[in-house]
Structures are given as structure tokens and as C-alpha cells.
Amino acid sequence: MEAVLAHLRGAIERGEYPVGHKLPSESALGKEFEVSRSVVREALRGLQALGLTVSKTGKGTFVTATGPVENPTFGTYSARDLFEVRRHVEIPVAGYAAVRRSTDDLDLLGHLVERMDLETDNTAWVALDSLFHITIAQASGNPVFGKVIEEIRDALARQSSFLNQLGGRRTRSNTEHREIVTAIASGSEADAVAAMTSHLEHVENALTTIVRPGHTTHQNKDD
């Protein structure tokens, strides 16, 4: 899928498929790349997520831009808005969770990271990812934080799916989630804040790399 997506994205950006042009059908692309239609379908979804194409029912997929949008929209919220809120909410929330979490909170977080490690279905993994971040907010002891994350839950899920599809984030996210849980379990507010900060920076960098290859938002010492 990644190879097909990269080829089609490159062709669009080079002008081989100009704006307004209809892409070949799924079956035609499948034959061209010698892959199944499901693989082609996933690649086409990736192009749409990047803002390069639009799919019209019964008509096909049409090119709408020669380059990806810099600020993709996930549901009703833009990536920029999501990151701004997450930095100002989820980072301090992780710190509060470290000093206020209950044994039940830790058990649930541990259970969630175990399930995410084993999960192979992307849709199920994304649902677990959303629940993971909501559980941390609830572990903060302040119900308002939980409501805030619930409000952006759908957008977070859409963004997570986008990053998994185009950025291969799942394995790295699993590792980062475990580091967050370890920090929260240690009771160290500073460690929990650092772990969540690192996680969100990696997520933001992954999105920036997809939209603007060669650029990163943050430079981490361990990158």
C-alpha cells in the first residue's frame, strides 16, 4: 500500500495527474501495480487524507491539489488545533495522573497497553488508543479533563488512523504508551510529564513528515 501510495502521490505532485483529472479505476490500478483492489483502495484513502484527491460516488477519484495540505482536518478539528489543545491538556494531565492515580487506573492502563501490543486490526487498535488517553485523563482525578478528551475523541481516532496508515506509527506508539504508564506508575509527576511530552512530539513530527517530507516540528535528542 505504501509503495502504491508513494507512486500515486509522486505522480500527482509532478503533474502527471493534473487537478481535475480522474485517476484510473481501482481495477486498472490493481493491474498496473499487480496488487489487490483492497490495497489500491487503502492507497486512495491515503491520498484523500492528504487532501490530494476526492472520491465521488459512482464517478471515481479526482485530483484536487498538487500537494498535501499543511494542516489536515480530522473530523471537525484541524491537526494544528488538536496539537495545541493536547500540549496544554494531556501533558499536565499525565503529571496529575502520576500523583493521583488509583490501583484500578494502573490496572486498566496496563491492560490497555497489553491489548494494543497484541492487536492486529487497525480500527480496533485506534479505539484502544483513544480509550488509553481518556483513561489517563480520568486518572487525573479531575472529571473536566476527561470531558475535554471525550470531546475530541473522534478527531483523535481519525488522526491516529491517518498516522498508522501513512506513517507506520503503531509500534512506536506502543513503546511510548508503555513509557507513559511506567512513569505514571512510578508516581513521578516530572517523569509522566516528560513521557507524555515526548509522545506528543513524536506524533506531531510523524504528521509533519507525512505532510512535508524532510521537515520536523521538534528535534529530540533520541531521534
TrEMBL record:
<dbReference type="Pfam" id="PF00392">
    <property type="entry name" value="GntR"/>
</dbReference>
<dbReference type="InterPro" id="IPR036390">
    <property type="entry name" value="WH_DNA-bd_sf"/>
</dbReference>
<dbReference type="InterPro" id="IPR008920">
    <property type="entry name" value="TF_FadR/GntR_C"/>
</dbReference>
<dbReference type="InterPro" id="IPR011711">
    <property type="entry name" value="GntR_C"/>
</dbReference>
<dbReference type="InterPro" id="IPR000524">
    <property type="entry name" value="Tscrpt_reg_HTH_GntR"/>
</dbReference>
<keyword id="KW-0805">Transcription regulation</keyword>
<keyword id="KW-0804">Transcription</keyword>
<dbReference type="Pfam" id="PF07729">
    <property type="entry name" value="FCD"/>
</dbReference>
<feature type="domain" description="HTH gntR-type">
    <location>
        <begin position="1"/>
        <end position="66"/>
    </location>
</feature>
<keyword id="KW-0238">DNA-binding</keyword>
<dbReference type="InterPro" id="IPR036388">
    <property type="entry name" value="WH-like_DNA-bd_sf"/>
</dbReference>
<protein>
    <submittedName>
        <fullName>FadR/GntR family transcriptional regulator</fullName>
    </submittedName>
</protein>
